[in-house]
Amino acid sequence: MPGVFEVVRSVPVGLAIEDILLLAEYSLEGEWEGQVRYLPL
Q1: What does the domain layout of the chain look like in residue ranges?
Q2: What is the largest CA-CA distance in the chain?
Q3: How does residue 24 score in pLDDT terms, banded at 50, 70 and 90?
Q4: DSSP-based helix, strand, coil % in the chain, nearest 5
Q5: Burial class of residue 1, CB neighbours in 10 A (0-12, 13-18, 19+)
Q6: Rounded Cα distance, 41 and 39, in Å
Q7: Which of 1, 16, 21, 22 is deepest in the core (most CB within 10 A)?
Q8: DSSP label at 29?
Q9: What is the residue-wise DSSP string for 1-41?
Q10: Mean pLDDT, residues 9-31 taken together
């Protein structure tokens, strides 16, 4: 499993996108493999 990020419905779409972009920008390849994380951070 490559990793899953779940976003709470009450989070504004813009904030969720910012968090996802932040994760994509500063994460290492395979860093989230096998994990389930919840956003916002």
Answers
A1: 4-39
A2: 29
A3: confident
A4: 35, 20, 45
A5: exposed
A6: 5
A7: 16
A8: T
A9: ---EEEE-TTS-HHHHHHHHHHHHHHPPTTTTTT-EEEE--
A10: 91
Residue 21 has pLDDT above 80, yes or no: yes
The residue behind tokens 């972009």 is: 21
Using CA atoms, how far residue 6 sits from 11, 23, in Å, is 11, 13
Query: Which tokens go with 39?
Result: 């956003």
Q: Are 2 and 32 in contact (CB under 8 A)?
A: yes
Closest to 18 (Cα-Cα) out of 5, 1, 30, 33? 5
